[in-house]
Amino acid sequence: MATTLLTAQVNGTPQALPQDPRRTLLDWLRDDLGLTGTKKGCDHGQCGACTVLVEGRRINSCLSLAALHEGDAIETIEGIGTPDALAPLQRAFVAHDGFQCGYCTPGQICSAKALMAELAEGWPSAASVDVSARPMPTPDELRERMSGNLCRCGAYSNIIAALEEVIAAENPV
Amino acid sequence: MKAFTLDHARSAEEALASLGQGHTAIAGGTNLVDLMKLQVALPDRLVSLRRTGLDAIVPEGDGLRIGALVTNADCAADMRVRQDWPLLSQAILAGASPQLRNRATTGGNLCQRTRCGYFYDTTQACNKREAGTGCAAREGFNRIHAVLGTSDACIATYPGDMAVALLALDAVVLTEGPFGPRQIPLAMFHREPGDDPTRDNVLHPGEMITAVKLPAPTGGRQVYRKVRDRASYAFALVSVAVDLSMEDGRIARCALAFGSLGTVPWRDPKVEAVLTGEAPSPALFAEAADVLLRDARGFGANDFKIPLAARALAATLAQATKG
Fold first, then answer.
1. What is the C-alpha to C-alpha distance for residues A163 and A160, in angstroms, rounded to an integer?
2. pLDDT confidence of residue B323
3. Does the distance separating the beta carbons of A22 and B3 come in below 8 Å?
4. Interface confidence: ipTM more than 0.90
5. pTM, 2 dp
6. Cross-chain residue pair A21–B46, CB shorter than 8 Å
7. SS3 for B71?
């Protein structure tokens, strides 16, 4: 059987997926493509540092085999903004001190970007009193929706402040 | 990870053919990949179910058919589920994190393994991981372990939330396999450990879940209450799912299921019988808890789950019956 090269789009560029099925999406991004913005924290889906967007949805890249992403559009922190052109979320994290060591920050920002899309689609959360109602971006809702990203420096309150600012700016009353 | 091959099934038929040849199914992989990293799961051949087309939620009769590959996130966000089976949305959203729910699937969630620490540690005795090696949890750190449905061989819980809601909602697991299609009531799907804890459920080799079917909505009051060590992103110590209807101040109908209390998602018709036809009161809720926990047995560190379950049941029933 001929070996066909399967590809995924990473930050808009087609990339050949690894031949070894053991390669996780995280190791492929970091070690093969050199996109080291995505971080390896626990490597077991318990910390969120490895969060990336796949087809616009946030996932733990450490628990996903790269070879399962044929045809997927993958976005990492490198695709969200650059030091010269910060995305609104990145600018807000800086302005609000949404980090200390910064190790969890790429995952936090990828997660926050997807969170905003989920809110726009009206997805409920465990903090929603009525799961059939359209959710509001209350602090309780934002905390629950960011609970998949741990920050061992404990910058949580500043992360929520950064998120509130960006959500308010994008949804003027 | 141990080396393995990976095939991509393009249909349920292709997947079944691979499973029949001994492949292990992978869907979201949120549990399986972790188990493979830890060398707890050592499959030689994987078949991916992601492109099998089993990812739709469609009405069936008065109920709903949820494809096995529907992600937990999509199921919880589906407006039909949110309006008519809110218990299911609540339970899914109480579990894991948004990232995991985006990848985890309906079928995979039902097949997830226990979170017993000894099961995940290959240096420890575990009859579920390797039959006949013993159970380190019985005399070990067993704070998260089961108090109902245990055996000499195993005291591990089924850890999930989604299945607890599905059990209370009388869901049915639809499968395809070497012996043809089966419809397995959720109450019959998971297996108590007995003397063979290696098998968590009744699926045959080569059989796979194609969908979960929800029966017609009950219109009842539905509450999922989860007690855990932190407010989010943690497995349950005890959870309670209730779907009940009130008539003239009395409980006219009641379905109750419990998570992380037993070795399987737990439902006990005797508990529901105590409550049905009665006016809600703290004394009634305590009587129901007594029936539920009559045969409960702790192993030291998890003794607290017995009074905790009684209080969680009372709180859940108080919330569902008020007003």
1. 5
2. 76
3. yes
4. yes
5. 0.98
6. yes
7. strand
